Amino acid sequence: MFRFILSIAVFFAATAAQAEITNTADNGFTSKHEAPINAAPDVVWKTLIAPARWWNGEHSFSGNAENLYLVAQAGGCFCELLRKTDKDNIKSAEGSVQHMRVLFAQNNKALRMSGALGPLQGEAVAGTLTIELRPNGENTAVSFTYKVGGYMEFPVDQIAPVVDGVIGEQLNRLAAVFMAEEEVEEESEGEPEEAGKAN
């Protein structure tokens, strides 16, 4: 079962202080996060459309981000396979989940998807996630804006901070991929010098 549903109270307590909710109403809310990423837009894009590299597996049905995939074209799917083994494919997996459907995709610039994430999937709501990549020198400014509206049994003032925290977490994880790569590069650049000193 989707772990996000089971731990909703925990996430509410942990993420309320991180809230970036720009608008709320009785039947919906808007969550927006932005982060600088130390890479060019085309490099960020390639990682963005490979959610298995950065999406938190805790926010999936299988608990494993490696089961996630994204077809970055209109009508494409941000989906998840429910696998029994690592070798299972779309035909042999025991099931699958559509998290979101691609509405708009412009390489290296923008991705818009429609879908009710996490516990919202069981509610009568619509959700739209717009991801924008804007050049900023040699780097990229990336924004995640998630708009939710419709009928739901969750009180908006409780569910909005939870969802907002998860959206912010995913953007932070995307940015962290490039931070980790920079650290690896710095370590590899220092190795020959250190090896020389040891000799």
- pLDDT average, as an integer? 85
Total helical segments: 4
Molecular shape: globular
Q: CATH superfamily, called what?
A: START domain
Q: Please report which band the strand proportion falls in: under 5%, 5-15%, 15-25%, 25-35%, 35-45% or over 45%.
A: 25-35%
What class would the helix/strand composition place it in?
Answer: alpha+beta
Strand order of the largest sheet: 1-2-8-7-6-5-4-3
User: How many distinct domains?
Assistant: 1
Query: What is the CATH topology assignment?
Result: Alpha-D-Glucose-1,6-Bisphosphate, Chain A, domain 4
The N- to C-terminal Cα distance equals: 55 Å
Helicity level: 25-40%
**Rounded Rg:** 19 Å
The counted number of beta strands is 8
CATH architecture annotation: 2-Layer Sandwich
Question: How is the biggest beta sheet arranged?
Answer: 8 strands, antiparallel
Which consecutive residue ranges, at least 5 long each, have pLDDT under 50?
Answer: 1-19, 194-199
The CATH class label is: Alpha Beta
Element order: H for helix, E for strand: HHEEHEEEEEEH
Tags for this model:
199 residues, alpha+beta, Alpha-D-Glucose-1,6-Bisphosphate, Chain A, domain 4, 4 helices, 8 strands, 34% strand, disordered N terminus, disordered C terminus
